[in-house]
């Protein structure tokens, strides 16, 4: 009897083992639900290395959060934060990761997790022109002095030609070659303009020449006084205004902002002229090309770019203003992952992981 039952039990066990998959197969990654994670490259929060791999503070923090979730992420890149939030609102993205400021307007469109970073706006300027001859040139042009300088140049040329013709006729010692004569006359005219003096040829006509020389002395002194006073007044104006040293100096200027950013909304509310750019690289090109006078954007983004590109001569000036917080964005709805992601984020904050990741990118100031 036992000889018959034992083969029967072994056969049933074999059939059962084939019907039920092992525990490892049940937990295989292919059984995890796939979620779409949207992001926008914004160093130092989202960076792309030369090898094509992504990093940054927000990216590393998201990886820590995703480790505690039973999901398979699929990553999609967006050009601007406005595009990223629009995709999140349309439920094309399950989670938006990056330097995303939490605002009232955005909170009406998408849901946000617990904040993970405190930030604000600052101003970036091009230090190459903040105190250079470019400002002086622009000031002279705006005041209309360059137009008068142009007329002065015309008179210098006319005077050079006229003096050449005059001396060729009355001064037998004057160079007969036109090239040499024009050079000599130009030198004489510039002496009058810059020093108020006339060469010795003024003695050609006795006391008439002396009066003629005195007349040019007055003309030269007047020209020098006019140029000096105009340059001084413009330089004084530049010193008083001081260029752009912070957010209080932005009215009356044109600033660059990122398209769809909180800086764009703030500049629009304050009535400050602005030009939108898709990202920091394009905005810096506009700043260095004098299309805008400054860039207004998130402080850590500007500070990080300046630190990584010291050769560009950029500077981040003024105080932090319009303070804001960063968080991960999700679409509204009961089937989103807002609760598990927020709980996981809070756990990482309590364990000091968030602070540790921030210090890796910003030092002990965070």
From TrEMBL:
<keyword id="KW-1133">Transmembrane helix</keyword>
<feature type="transmembrane region" description="Helical">
    <location>
        <begin position="148"/>
        <end position="166"/>
    </location>
</feature>
<keyword id="KW-0813">Transport</keyword>
<dbReference type="InterPro" id="IPR001320">
    <property type="entry name" value="Iontro_rcpt_C"/>
</dbReference>
<dbReference type="Pfam" id="PF00497">
    <property type="entry name" value="SBP_bac_3"/>
</dbReference>
<keyword id="KW-0407">Ion channel</keyword>
<protein>
    <recommendedName>
        <fullName>ABC transporter substrate-binding protein</fullName>
    </recommendedName>
</protein>
<keyword id="KW-0812">Transmembrane</keyword>
<keyword id="KW-0732">Signal</keyword>
<dbReference type="GO" id="GO:0016020">
    <property type="term" value="C:membrane"/>
</dbReference>
<feature type="domain" description="Ionotropic glutamate receptor C-terminal">
    <location>
        <begin position="34"/>
        <end position="364"/>
    </location>
</feature>
<keyword id="KW-0472">Membrane</keyword>
<keyword id="KW-0675">Receptor</keyword>
<dbReference type="InterPro" id="IPR015683">
    <property type="entry name" value="Ionotropic_Glu_rcpt"/>
</dbReference>
<keyword id="KW-0406">Ion transport</keyword>
<feature type="signal peptide">
    <location>
        <begin position="1"/>
        <end position="25"/>
    </location>
</feature>
<dbReference type="InterPro" id="IPR001638">
    <property type="entry name" value="Solute-binding_3/MltF_N"/>
</dbReference>
<feature type="transmembrane region" description="Helical">
    <location>
        <begin position="207"/>
        <end position="227"/>
    </location>
</feature>
<feature type="domain" description="Solute-binding protein family 3/N-terminal">
    <location>
        <begin position="34"/>
        <end position="365"/>
    </location>
</feature>
<dbReference type="GO" id="GO:0015276">
    <property type="term" value="F:ligand-gated monoatomic ion channel activity"/>
</dbReference>
<keyword id="KW-0325">Glycoprotein</keyword>
């Amino acid at each position: 009897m036992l000889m018959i039952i034992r083969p029967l039990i072994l056969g049933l066990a074999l059939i059962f083992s084939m019907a039920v998959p092992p525990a490892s197969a049940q937990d295989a990654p292919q059984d995890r639900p796939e979620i779409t994670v949207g992001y926008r490259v914004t160093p130092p929060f989202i960076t792309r290395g030369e090898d094509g791999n992504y990093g940054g503070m927000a990216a590393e923090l998201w990886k820590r959060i995703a480790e505690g979730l039973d999901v398979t992420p699929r990553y999609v890149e967006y050009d601007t934060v406005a595009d990223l939030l629009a995709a999140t609102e349309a439920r094309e993205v399950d989670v938006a990761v990056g330097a995303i400021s939490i605002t009232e307007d955005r909170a009406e469109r998408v849901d946000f997790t617990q904040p993970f970073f405190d930030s604000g706006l600052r101003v970036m300027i091009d230090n190459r022109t903040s105190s250079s001859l470019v400002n002086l040139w622009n000031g002279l042009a705006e005041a209309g002095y360059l137009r008068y300088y142009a007329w002065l140049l015309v008179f210098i040329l006319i005077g050079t030609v006229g003096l050449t013709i005059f001396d060729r006729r009355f001064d037998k010692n004057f160079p007969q070659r036109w090239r040499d004569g024009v050079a000599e006359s130009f030198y004489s005219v510039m002496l009058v303009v810059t020093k108020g003096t006339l060469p010795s040829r003024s003695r050609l006509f006795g006391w008439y020449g002396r009066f003629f020389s005195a007349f040019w002395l007055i003309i030269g002194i007047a020209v020098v006084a006019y140029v000096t006073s105009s340059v001084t007044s413009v330089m004084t104006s530049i010193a008083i205004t001081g260029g752009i040293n912070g957010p209080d100096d932005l009215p009356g200027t044109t600033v660059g902002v990122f398209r769809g950013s909180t800086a764009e909304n703030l500049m629009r509310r304050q009535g400050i002229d602005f030009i939108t750019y898709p990202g920091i690289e394009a905005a810096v090109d506009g700043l260095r090309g004098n299309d805008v006078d400054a860039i207004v954007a998130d402080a850590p983004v500007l500070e990080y770019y300046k630190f990584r590109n010291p050769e560009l001569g950029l500077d981040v000036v003024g105080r932090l203003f319009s303070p804001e917080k960063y968080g991960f964005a999700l679409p509204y709805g009961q089937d989103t992952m807002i609760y598990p992601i927020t709980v996981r984020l809070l756990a990482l904050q309590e364990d000091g992981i968030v602070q540790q990741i921030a210090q890796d990118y910003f030092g002990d100031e965070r």
